[in-house]
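Ticket 4471: requesting a sanity check on a complex prediction with iron/sulfur cluster. Repro inputs:
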Amino acid sequence: MSGTFVGMPAFPKAARDAVRDTTLRGNLRHATHTIRDKRAKAVAELDDWQQLREAGKRIKDLTLRHLDRHLLRLEESVTAAGGTVHWAADAAEANRIVGDLVKATGETEVVKVKSMATQEIGLNEALAAEGIHAYETDLAELIVQLGDDRPSHILVPAIHRNRAEIRAIFRDRMAGWGRPAPEGLTDNPADLAEAARLHLREKFLRAKVGISGANFMVAETGTLVVFESEGNGRMCLTLPETLISVVGIEKTVPTWQDLEVFLQTLPRSSTAERMNPYTSMWTGTADGDGPQTFHLVLLDNGRTDALADDVGRQALRCIRCSACLNVCPVYERAGGHAYGSVYPGPIGAILTPQLRGTTSEIDASLPYASSLCGACYEVCPVAIDIPEVLVHLREKVADRGGPGHRLEKAAMKAATWAMDHPGAMAAGERAASRTRALHPRRPPGAGAWTDSRDLPELPAEPFRDWWRKNRT
Ligand code: SF4
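Returned structure tokens:
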């Protein structure tokens, strides 16, 4: 996976800093509550939401079980439709493939559709190292790029910015990237959108190469699908002569009939729309219509490792709707940057450690970035049991061990032994009751959690003894 966020501190430290930022907390609270309320209304309109959710889960699980077969079918279909398929095992390979393809066109500029996969591999940075400028054309991604910032939400990457901040970014930075912001730009949303539209239009009209991801790939026909709200994606997918799509292998669905379920669940669950304004679909190339050259880069980058994990593989069902972020109390307070990856929130806490492994401090801390309240599971349109995966990943991190984890394991081992030996346990309870005046009220040196909590007071008589005396 990309090194874009390398050097970030572990989640607890990053979250502590973020929680102190009152502007950030205000922006996040306002945005997440607005989106979550709208989403709840859009979902409540469908009587069969739970059935759709179950259908989405099953389609994804079945597809993942035979992913090798579906991917080969997809490759055949894309090739038959005039496209070229490339296989990338990791971020470095994907970046090299895309860099070589752009260089082969002789171009030094590309326009991009919002894409999580290309952020995951750090494509913009890799292209910049080759002298190629990648221009983000999604409004929120544009704000992030111009602000020299990092995305903090899957769907709304600039969710941590308010209107005044966006105005300042446009006013100060647009000129360095192309057409400057209009004189006297206000922070009225319509004015900000118009400034972005004017800035981007010249890039759309000039670009010869477009780069995208995809929400889905239909194996039976080799069709790629992008859902979007602004129309910038449609411009990038139709105007350039060459289109390169970088897509995670788990985005495959076998048939159009399977797609029908997600066409209903994704818009409602992400933008709270019955249907998103632009759904672009393309199949290879067509003479005189749209890009004349199409490349599909199929990205693994840790996905087959996740697939091998019986519990963790359900994270690959994710359709990136971001509903789990908007209901998460931890995300709402910590913000997206604290997760140290392009995948923040509950899905990031289970996906990133599987794609990147848990050897770095931040990745090992992510499975703990949750209160396990289960709100994420409730809203997930493909029923990913995020709390289950979090606990599973915590176990993996604990098994690898640090001093704290070793202590916890030793304590659990001792507890298991005591419960297996009732006589010894009863003797221990009596001894603890007799010496209760000597016991500390708080466990020493175990950090803030125990500093703010009292130990329960030991009874003068253990329950077993009381029961023996009183049960008649
Ligand atoms: S885990 Fe579920 S709720 Fe979260 S982004 Fe993925 S599909 Fe949406």
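Notes from triage: The first strand starts at residue 84 and ends at 88. Leaving this open until the requester confirms.
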